[in-house]
User: Fold these one by one.
Assistant:
Number 1:
Amino acid sequence: MEIVTAFKRAVDLWLMSDSDIRVLPIQDYIENVVRYLHGVAHQNYYDKIKNEVVYIVNTDGSLFSNADAPNPEFCHGNIFRDTLPSLQRSAGYLNAVNAASQRMKDVCSQCQYYGICSGYYMAEATPEERYGGLDARLKCAVVKPVQEYIESVLIDSGAFDPKRRRWSFKQIKSKALNQHAGESARSKSVAAARA
Ligand code: SF4
């Protein structure tokens, strides 16, 4: 998938860079994987009712969660007419909460990162971001494979030794550089072959 390929490339470039620039969501993914490898307890779970912070407001004032605009079945109400408590009790809001919870249950509960990665990305995935596998079941087609890629880079490069559970961050950059050098050489040879 092109998004995963692009994010993997962004991971390599970020690791190569000397800049402290924050590249989101790459930085979030890397932090998740570092916590996961480090053995941090799995206790970070997205709670839509308590922690939702991104809303979509249509021009007529109708309010939606990020995942659901502009589907009327999931409309929380109207910010020009309804009070906040009534928006959060509406049938549309409860539909949105239940649907997000079901996505996390179906997909995140099977994932090794769940509890480190909060599941937010699956809970608030828009219809365009919901991918089905060959069996048509919903899957985490971007965040999980990119996090698995980051995990493999950190381990294969020697940046993290899973047996000793030790970190050696100076290894990360050389690994990314080697990968990039390999890719550049391959690109040049392809270009030369086409010329
Ligand atoms: S399935 Fe995706 S969103 Fe859910 S916990 Fe795993 S990586 Fe995170």
Number 2:
Amino acid sequence: MASITIRNLDDTTKQMLRERAAQHGRSMEEEVRILLRGSAASPEPAATVLPAPVIDSIPGTLSGKRILLIITGGIAAYKSLDLIRRLRERGALVRPVMTRGACAFVTPLAVGALAADRVYTELFSREDEHDVGHIRLAREADLVLVAPATADFIGKMALGLADDLASTIILASDRPLLIAPAMNPVMWAAPAVQRNVQHLREDGVHIIGPTHGEMAESGEAGAGRMAEPLAIAAAAARLLDDRPKPLAGRSAVVTSGPTHEPIDPVRYIANRSSGKQGHAIAAELAALGAQVTLISGPVTIADPQGVTTIHVESARDMLSAVENCLPSDIAVMVAAVADWRASGESGEKIKKQPDQPPPALQLTENPDILRTVGHHEQRPALVVGFAAETQNLIDNARSKLERKGADLIVANDVSPSTGIMGGDRNQVRVVSKNGVENWPDMDKQAVAAKLAQEIADRFQTAMA
Ligand SMILES: Cc1cc2nc3c(=O)[nH]c(=O)nc-3n(C[C@H](O)[C@H](O)[C@H](O)COP(=O)(O)O)c2cc1C
């Protein structure tokens, strides 16, 4: 029903709906449903609630950008269907090209229907080649995106081979190139593949992923999964981003993910943070021109592009990595840092003793990274913290703002029912000394884009 309604809308309304949907990280159908239902009441009254600013066009959207999407023959080709939706939701025009291998995994019919364009598969096509179609396809694009990129296709790109339409387009194109490799972990680790990937990097090809995780086909796990469609769409948006760079020449340190606190050499205390929100914020600050260092706890997602990433395990490691980044203009402390660690980490694996009660786990307080940065003699001009709470969200965020010496606290309700911890979406309240702003439910990329813009605005005001 919703899709019939959308189809019947005029082009201007459709474009407004598309931008609104992309702003909230929803499909157009979801956006219509939410608009019809009316906005949900805020579950928690706040003393001073400022209206959320309306964004006319989301930073980082792909409105009107032409993306030539090359799908190659890997099992992750099924994810390209979702990728097409994500790109189109953000306003991109997607023109699909499929290799013969890709057509064995997903049908050109499904790809064409989702892209709302015809699918190009053949190099030697009388129909397309009367005007040298492969050259036209290569030139009529703002970005060439290969997702998934097979080991085979990466090899062809590295060698400059051109024996089918997709590989010929790559050689004929002078547009930015982004690839999302996807393959079995053993294939990804193969020296030949790594050599080819390195070649592509040196040639200026942008690479997103692969990430760690379970493989779709075999029950195997490791590095080789294609980056998630949302992350690929965000990377494409960043590459095509021609917005001004208000944070050019500024530095930012961002923390992300959980920390792991060792109990013995094999066991640790952890939490469910995925790093998705912190990594996205680091990437969005970089997109606004900042020089970003991301201090990441152990996560399974890919390092963001355009950011220097330092990997750490424990809260103590994270603190010393953050302090090494000072002085810095901006600090955004997103990581879910463990409040406590085991006191007296055992050097050997603690053995289960027959007929003995389980050993008691004694805890010691960890250093408070946000508080340290907020009161540091080299305190950044803007300090932003996150508050993950399951109760009294606003009260806790307000007291955190005060105690930790932060300028902004981004509060979110991480009760299991919200699905925020580890999930793709987030609904945040931004608490400052001026009051509380309720932001709508959005995907984490959209929260990151909006927060980065807010940080840039506040930083410029603070510096004025
Ligand atoms: C079931 C199956 C799954 C495959 N999955 C992948 C994959 O995920 N990544 C990859 O690099 N190759 C994969 N391959 C191998 C490619 O399909 C093969 O190298 C093919 O020649 C790629 O062609 P293309 O790069 O022209 O699309 C798979 C093959 C089969 C039969």
